[in-house]
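User: My instructor asked us to take a sequence, write out its structure as tokens, and then describe one feature of it. I'm not sure where to start. Here is the sequence I was given:
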Amino acid sequence: LLKRAIIHPHGARITRRRSSELYTHPKRLVKAWTKMQEYDLYKVIEKISLQTDMYIGDQTLSNLDSYLSSYEEAMKEAGIENATYPSLVHFRDWLKVKFGFVSDVPGSSNMILALAVGFEPHKDLPWEKMKVASEAQHIRSLELFFGLVVEYKKG
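Assistant: Let's start with the prediction itself. The structure tokens for your sequence are:
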């Protein structure tokens, strides 16, 4: 019998006994399949941070927000479990406390963009001016977001 080993991308070792027959040890296959059935949003965000324009096109927090929301929805529909820990559900509240936002802020993206633009979080913010942020301010807000996510994850 000819034996050649092929390593599956998720760690399962597949042994080729004949040119037409593939065999995988069941325990390894289950382990590899389990890894494929969950995702970590922090890893996705890290990948995006390395090549932002490739993933979201125009470099804005609203594009990133749309991408991440779509990604989560696609994973949910495919039955793939979110293994992100700590969960990003409380990220907005964490930002609000960390920077002392007093007004009712519509989303974490707007808080971070406000910081990148240079608005004081302790005052009522002119949200209408946020729509005219420059390209450099949007890029700065993305850099700030990626840094804050790392800080939030560390706890």
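For the description part of your assignment, you could build on this observation: Residues 2 and 17 are 5 Å apart (CA to CA). Try explaining in your own words what that tells you about the chain.
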